[in-house]
């Protein structure tokens, strides 16, 4: 079976600016047979892979008012510190997040008497967190926790806005990039350029009848014109299902899946998901006029007119 993703041919206007990632998935007959044996519903291990995500960004120290002092709150790992913050969100009394950020010191050599400190904090704006230090010489690891209605960004197109719930526990570096993107207030060049509907291979719930093509996806780029993209290393990779938003390789190219793709297994960093009510917009993009092309022996459907988008906060208080 041909792999669904391949290098997009560069055009003269963007040559030297886009970092195009080639990710090849080789599926032999044995793998196909294994795929056909998968159950329709997500297995327990797949559910745990998403529910148990609790990661942070190394070399980052977030600032802000402390709701629990690290000098009195020592834990064995960054994941435990993250879980301690999650336990305070939502609060049983009013449903708010008493903790939305955490800072942990886990390098015994560098932390010395601060080793194990877990600071739980509350940001004034969790989508613009206060940063006091960042870099390889910073001994702290920090992460975010989003409460209900937080951590949602919108990809505003001429067909409507695709709202994406970001996943800071699974993909903290990816979320960090979106926070940076919102701060730039500019997403010139961000667009969808490939669109393949579900065709007759998947039903409306995302269940499959065959592998493809078409591959039931949108593909685009999140690189801003004139701003070099720093590759994002592999993060948590739960299986891709309908609505999943994931990097192709290390970015800046990304995909939105219109169907369940268990055959891709854990090949992609999933950093968010499209809110269910907005999947109709993704489906509308997928049926726009396309032209068939071949990229590295892979047949793809390329939009005749790319769909450009702006990146906005859900509140529209800050846009890019």
UniProtKB/TrEMBL annotation:
**Keyword entries, A-Z:** Signal
Per the UniProt entry, the signal peptide is: 1-33
User: What GO molecular functions are on record for this protein?
Assistant: peptidyl-prolyl cis-trans isomerase activity
The source's domain of life comes to Eukaryota
InterPro entries listed in its UniProt record: Cyclophilin-like_dom_sf, Cyclophilin-type_PPIase_dom
Q: Start and end of every PPIase cyclophilin-type domain?
A: 153-301
Kindly provide the name given to this protein in its UniProt entry.
PPIase cyclophilin-type domain-containing protein
Which source organism? Eleusine coracana subsp. coracana
